[in-house]
Amino acid sequence: MPLLDPTSELQKALAERILVLDGAMGTTIRSYGLSETDARGSRFADSEKDLLNNGDILSLTRPDVIGDIHKRFYEAGSDICETNTFSATNIAQSEFFVDDPREKGGRKDPEFFQKIIENPFLNELAWDMNVESSRLCRKWADNVGSDTGRKRYVAGAIGPLTVSLTNSPDANDPGFRVVKFDQVLEAYKHQVRALIEGGCDILMIETIFDSLNAKAAAVAVQEVYAEQKIHLPIIISAAVGLGGETMISAQKVEAFWNAFAHTHPLAIGLNCSLGPDLMRPHLEELSACATTHVSCYPNAGLPNPLAPTGFDLEPHHMEKFMAEFADAGLLNLAGGCCGNTPEHIAAIAKGVANKKPRGIPVVR
Where are the domains of the chain? Predict the structure, then answer.
């Protein structure tokens, strides 16, 4: 189906103000007090494994909850919300529906994952998750956008997977990989096609802890664009450790930008893993080298199981930090990751309102 390329529209908006992203889907889901029965619905009532922690499946079994979450984030001030598809690939969903061979003395390897890639049940599940999640988010983007007179956008969330292409899990065989690049590529292509079918405006490769996994996702996006003769803007966002390195591939921030600059992303950024205080020096480094827009959606501090959201920072804290980032000229897009509720996003939106967006460095 032909799709409008919203890139120029988004570029114009980004030149005028800092756009607001959404918050944490998982954190907000937990506030609804759902049960295992809710997660399963009728479609998955006979599942042999628990599904309550499979948040993406709720787009199929409790679309009322996921739709309400999108509505609340858009009403809180989000210009862009992500689809509920962080783990909506056949590879990631196999964790919930396929027996782990390691429990019987076997191992996960490319032969195992080839069966996952070819599994009809998992492929249908991944397709339905991505299409329906996109349609849900699209519905509320359009409804709230129409009600407020301000255009809202849908970003198709493409998560990092549960496997690594960079590292071997076997200390005695450093050359071994559980999965092949082409298998990861195929899983991501299936997801990208479904996100586009559901009506996304943007594709977001996010929470990158393994740059080679993300490379496969970026190749998948480009190949599907060529296949369907369309183009949607891309946002790329990494999760970094205290030293500013992607967790598994250990790529520092500037190297991360250099690795993905050729994809010409609408924005590149950092999310998850750290609170805004610890993320700031790495954001400063990225802002100094990236010749495109910069996004930032940190956790609400570090994990704290005694806090109501599981994280320390309250909405007013996030407002203060993100306002400071904006005043320092570090931001084009601002939001929140783990621990950030719609109330946090409302505070962030207030904090960056009327702030000048970061200027993009000119390459000479």
Answer: 7-352
Per-residue pLDDT for the chain (364 aa), expressed as one digit of tens each? 334 456 788 999 999 999 999 999 999 999 999 999 999 999 999 999 999 999 999 999 999 999 999 999 999 999 999 999 999 999 999 999 999 999 998 999 999 999 999 999 999 999 999 999 999 999 999 999 999 999 999 999 999 999 999 999 888 899 999 999 999 999 999 999 999 999 999 999 999 999 999 999 999 999 999 999 999 999 999 999 998 888 788 889 999 999 999 999 999 999 998 999 999 999 999 999 999 999 999 999 999 998 989 999 999 999 999 999 999 999 999 999 999 999 999 999 999 999 999 998 776 5
Query: What's 7-352's CATH class?
Result: alpha beta
E strand or H helix at 155: strand 153-158
Tokens for 30, please give them. Answer: 């937990």
Contacts of 34 (CB under 8 A, 6+ apart): 52, 58, 62, 65
Q: d(Cα 155, Cα 44) in Å, to the nearest integer?
A: 27
Can you read off the two tokens belonging to residue 303? Answer: 């994990």
One DSSP character per residue, 187-231 reads HHHHHHHHHHHHT-SEEEEEEES-HHHHHHHHHHHHHHHHHHT--
